[in-house]
Amino acid sequence: MLGHRYTHSFVETAVASVNAGCNLELSYGLRNNVFMHIPQALAMGNITLQTLRDRVRPLFYTRMRLGEFDPPAMNPYSSLDLSVVQSPEHRNLSLEAAVKSFVLLKNVRGTLPLRAQDLPGQHLAVVGPFADNPWVLFGDYAPVPEPQYIYTPRRGLQVLGANVSFTAGCSEPRCQRYSRAELVRVVRAADVVLVCLGTGVDVETEARDRRDLSLPGHQLELLQDAVQ
Question: Which of 4, 151, 158, 225 is least surrounded by Cβ atoms within 10 Å, i.e. has the fewest?
Answer without folding.
Answer: 4
